Amino acid sequence: LQKTLLNIEGLGRQLYPALNLWDTAQPFLEKWVQDRYSPQSMIKRIQHHAPGWLEQLPRVPDAVLENLREARDSEARLQAELAR
Length: 84
Fold this sequence. Notes:
Blueprint: H1 2-15, H2 21-37, H3 39-56, H4 60-83
């Protein structure tokens, strides 16, 4: 978003040198941030994603154990390589 705004600002200043994009965009950006990160918005996103999270929850312990095994095995292989 920032890169896009910088590009727009550069073009805007070429077309209209008095343009201050940041002053112009500030109210819109503040509203966007407020809407996106408001408690109500966060609750809506959680409600939207919660069913999928709950569906995956029973798989978490096995996934954690598998990742720990893989990390241990990778460490053992690395130690063996370094010992050569």
